[in-house]
Amino acid sequence: MRTRPIAFWPMARLGSSARNVKTQETYLLARITARIIHRHAEIEMSARRKPDRTAPMFRLFDMLGPSAAIRALDDALRGSGVHPLLVPEPVKLTVIRLNTREDGPRNQDVAFAEASQLLAYCMLGHEQFATSNSSQDADRIDTRVEAALDDGDTLDAKLILLALHAGLIAPEIADRIDLDDV
């Protein structure tokens, strides 16, 4: 009794559409390529859309739950007018790390509130931030942005650059940044 090699078992299901090995390999390659392209088109999303939660991806935060710092930052983002799902996890982790490096043992809730307000201002722009918060808060954050752009190496400047590099920044805020100085 002669058995087929293991490499040909999936091709046995192809039936009469594939006559020889070369045709079978071409047929399988075309099917695999079509699946990859189709899956890539499903996963691809714009910067302003919510993340695709149906994508088959292993997420550690979904399995273990978010840390207390991420939950605190999510609450601060909600308070600033930005839904936490609009901010990617790596950006949140970077905000947490920058705050712990710069501020040390300072009150975490206050630090996250200030950072999330600046991040929300960079994401929404002046008018939308003023409508979701207040015009006084928008003016205060605007002066923080101006001071950060003038000083250069502050926590606020690093948060603005983070929003810029993550693609989360509003066009009106991005136009104010002089990339030659950065």
Describe this structure in words.
This protein is mainly alpha-helical. It has a domain of 114 residues. 64% of the residues lie in helices and 0% in strands. Helix 6 packs across helix 7, helix 7 crosses helix 8 and helix 8 packs across helix 9. The radius of gyration is 24 Å and the shape is elongated. The chain starts with 8 loop residues before the first helix and ends in an 8-residue tail after the last helix. About 10% of the residues have low confidence.
Q: Could you tell me how far the N terminus lies from the C terminus, measured between alpha carbons in angstroms? A: 72 Å
Question: Helix-strand pattern, N to C?
Answer: HHHHHHHHHH
How many strands in all? 0
Mean pLDDT: 76
**Structural Rg:** 24 Å
- Helical content band: 55-70%
Poorly predicted runs are 4-12, 40-48
Structural class based on helices, strands and sheet pairing: mainly alpha
Largest sheet: none
Q: Quick one: overall form?
A: elongated
What is the count of DSSP helices, taking H or I runs of 4+ residues?
A: 10
User: Beta-sheet strand percentage?
Assistant: under 5%
Layout of helices and strands, plus pairs?
Layout: H1 9-12, H2 21-43, H3 60-64, H4 68-80, H5 89-103, H6 108-124, H7 126-132, H8 135-151, H9 155-166, H10 171-174
Helix pairs in contact: 4-6, 5-6, 5-9, 6-7, 6-9, 7-8, 8-9
